[in-house]
């Protein structure tokens, strides 16, 4: 729970483990942050607060459960997107999706059920096919 959220927030911020350690003035080492992310240990309250501030997320965000996963995320082959930028995009998508689902839960509404049309996905070869 904490580790997954910490890693997601760190990736969204575009920070490496060392970068995050520097952002919290080396209150703990990059290795310790890695252990937090893997769930091997939990930080003390002061370190958790520093991490949340450095990542610009509420402390409650780091401790809230999330079971959302992205599968099959693909980028264009010719895109010159770095691995770091791809990780940032994935983290941002997960964050937005998580917030959306939290709003649905708070409002007591459920996501609309969606059935894939028969024969989908359709191959689009021309502009007219897209209409």
Quick structural gist:
By secondary structure, the protein is an all-alpha fold. The chain is built from six helices and no strands. The longest helix is centred in the last third of the chain and has 25 residues.
Structural write-up:
- The chain is globular and about 60 Å long.
- The protein has one domain: lambda repressor-like DNA-binding domains (434 Repressor (Amino-terminal Domain)).
- Helix content is about 50%, strand content about 0%.
- It is built from six helices and no strands.
- It has helices at about 1-15, 15-25, 30-35, 45-55, 60-65, 85-105.
- It has about 130 residues and is mainly α.
- Helix 2 packs across helix 3.
- In the CATH hierarchy, the third-tier topology is known as 434 Repressor (Amino-terminal Domain)
Mean pLDDT: 84
Number of helices: 6
The overall number of domains is 1
Helical content (DSSP H or I, runs of 4+): 40-55%
Outline: globular
Unreliable spans: none
Which CATH class? Mainly Alpha
E-strand count: 0
Main beta-sheet strand count, sense and barrel state: none
CATH architecture: Orthogonal Bundle
Residue fraction in strands: under 5%
Q: What would you give as the CATH superfamily?
A: lambda repressor-like DNA-binding domains
Radius of gyration: 19 Å
The H-and-E topology, N to C, reads as HHHHHH
Report, as a whole number of angstroms, the end-to-end distance: 43 Å
Backbone structural class: mainly alpha
């Amino acid at each position: 729970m904490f580790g997954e959220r910490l890693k997601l927030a760190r990736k969204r911020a575009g920070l490496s483990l060392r970068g995050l350690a520097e952002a919290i003035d080396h209150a703990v080492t990059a290795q310790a942050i890695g252990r937090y992310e893997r769930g091997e240990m939990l930080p003390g309250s002061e370190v958790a607060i520093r991490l949340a501030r450095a990542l610009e997320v509420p402390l409650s965000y780091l401790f809230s459960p999330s079971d959302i996963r992205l599968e099959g995320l693909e980028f264009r082959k010719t895109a010159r997107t770095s691995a770091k930028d791809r990780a940032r995009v994935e983290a941002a998508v997960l964050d937005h999706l998580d917030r959306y689902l939290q709003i649905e839960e708070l409002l007591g509404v459920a996501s609309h059920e969606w059935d894939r049309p028969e024969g989908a996905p359709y191959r689009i070869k021309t502009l007219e096919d897209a209409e």
